[in-house]
Design goal:
There is one protein chain. The protein is of the alpha+beta class. The chain has two helices and twelve strands, in the order H-E-E-E-E-E-E-E-E-E-H-E-E-E. The strands form three sheets. Strands 1-2-3-6-7-10-11-12 form an eight-stranded antiparallel barrel. About 25% of the residues are buried.
Length: about 270
């Protein structure tokens, strides 16, 4: 009876340890297989074999006049070339924007701002490989150039003020009918700045086109991962001038530089 008891005790004690070792062995084998596959793909790339045919990338960027984000889907044409299809959404700020504190409360307002400006761009770029990292370490350098269509989305800068007649809050945008109230609210300190939900009922769109050029530094640990920094310039032209600020010259051509950080995966 004692022998059976000690045998069962040994089984109960050793089983978790054996299972743990077995799991470790499986993980080790799986990791080694993955490393062998990655090394084989890296060797094929060095020999000029097309191993990855597409990638999907998400990015965030800071521009000289705003910020934004984008989605990119690529299709390889050869080891050295690819087509990049991009959807880019950003907010462009006017260089003369200045936030002012309201006299009556802590909210801030941008003096003279009449519209938020959101460029939405859909286009394609040609990517050229300048330097391949060749293995799981190093930096992959590419040059990208292209362009496409752009829509300038204008969202009204809708402020809130107290109506002197009814003494109730009233939302006002800069239009010919409300321009006097809109401007007076800045000077007398009664205006409250808009929030994220205001102004969407007053949307205007202006069509345009854009061109873009950039350099991309992909430092991903493995070739199947995309971890990159991109620097570049963008030029946008719209069919009519974009009203962003009162008393400032309106323009329909915008030039900006940017830096972006990108994350994605190749297949």
């Amino acid at each position: 009876m004692k022998k059976i008891f000690f045998l069962l005790l040994a089984v109960v004690t050793l089983s978790p340890a054996m299972a743990q070792n077995e799991n470790k062995d499986k993980k080790k084998i799986k990791k080694e297989a993955r490393m062998n596959r990655i090394n084989a793909i890296a060797k094929q790339e060095e020999e000029g074999v097309l191993t990855y045919t597409k990638h999907t990338v998400f990015g965030l960027k800071l521009t000289t006049d705003g910020y934004g984000g984008f989605l990119e889907i690529a299709r390889a044409q050869s080891v050295n070339r690819a087509l990049l299809f991009q959807l880019d959404i950003a907010e462009r700020k006017h260089p003369k924007e200045e936030k002012l504190s309201n006299f009556n409360n802590s909210s801030q307002i941008i003096f003279g701002k009449i519209n938020y400006f959101y460029p939405i761009k859909l286009g394609v770029q040609q990517q050229f490989l300048l330097g391949n990292k060749g293995n799981k370490n190093g930096v992959n350098l590419t040059a990208n150039a292209g362009g496409g269509a752009s829509i300038g989305l204008l969202r009204a800068y809708e402020i809130e003020l107290i109506d002197p007649v009814t003494n109730k809050p009233e939302s006002v945008i800069y239009e010919s009918a409300d321009s006097t109230q809109f401007l007076n609210a800045y000077y007398d300190g009664t205006a409250t700045g808009p929030n994220l939900f205001k102004g969407w009922s007053h949307i205007k769109m202006t069509p345009g086109a854009y061109a873009k050029a950039s350099l991309r530094f992909d430092y991903g640990k493995y070739n199947e991962m995309v971890n990159a920094i991109e620097v570049g310039v963008t030029g946008e032209f719209y069919s009519k001038k974009i009203p962003q600020m009162i008393y400032q010259k309106q323009k329909n051509f915008f030039f900006s530089a940017y830096v972006a950080i990108m994350f994605g995966r190749r297949k």
